[in-house]
Amino acid sequence: MNATNYVEQLGPSSFPDSTSRHDPDFHVNAPELAAAARALVLIQIDDESVLRSIGSVLRTATRLRELTMWADGDYMLRFSQVSSSWCGQVPFKLTSLDLRGFVDLGRSSCPLWSLLSPVDLKALTLNTSLNVDSLDFSSFWETSVAADLRPKALSTNLVMSGLEGFIQSFSGLEALSITSPNTACVPERLELILGALVKLHSATLKVLSIDPRGALINHLLDDVSLNQLSKHFPNMEELRFGIVESMSEHAIQTVLKFPNIQLLYITLSRGSTEWILVGQEQYLSQMLQIGMAQKLKYFIFDDGPLFKVIRKPLRIMKERLPLGMIKDTFLFGDMVFGWNRGEN
Fold first, then answer.
1. What would be the CATH architecture of the domain defined by 102-340?
2. Residues near 198 by beta carbon (within 8 Å), at least 6 away in sequence
């Protein structure tokens, strides 16, 4: 095992009385492994005592640069259980942090940036999993500004008031992915988010993903906003969005004008039928045949198949790899993407 890049599943199959644990020596060797590790990936965490043990181990992880921790959302675990034994900030400076499934992320009861320094963070994923009042999150993005958080890549479902102000507090964002808040709140308006991106990140933004489901069901792009995006973000490579009714083909024409577009994930209007879906796939294929979007590699509509574009000669094929395993992309390189779609 390479101690500098440690991956462990900590769900039911990882406990001592199981015969299918990923590493039978994890609990014994965890302090030694963590001390040497530069990257830790801990997934399917479902036990409070395991969280406290992880917290104790992390106090010695002086070389750690990348930390991924996914809690099982069914168990109502809190990240503050990890940090309960910490006295102030931990001794490592992370460049990548991925926290999902904890019920207190973003809440005042979990002062994240007083525990983990965000100064060196380049990639940040924060997804909470509890339906709570949005007032619990009212100051999170303000504290992130005060802590000097300036990520290159941000993925989050904390899409509530304050996100616009945070995006406007720095420049250089390369990837933004937002999904529906699990909270009973009104999300930040899409026009505010897009306006903040145009003001400070137009020269750098390469990935924009707006998942139009749940609380974001009305966060759709119309003809005006799509044209604005094509003008202001010349370096856009990956784009996920939902479109308003009656503009499918026009939307496709517009997004294919992005000079560097490599991936498109388009959610059609709620009333779309399978016939409409197939029609849009065929229409996009025709646009590629006449020479548009010379750099496009992948496209997908709704939950339909992912198509891969092969060049010289031009061919369009169904991608064999499942979503989550497409490692030459930002959006489809995250394994949780495939899990959410029921893929293995």
1. Alpha-Beta Horseshoe (3.80)
2. 228, 232
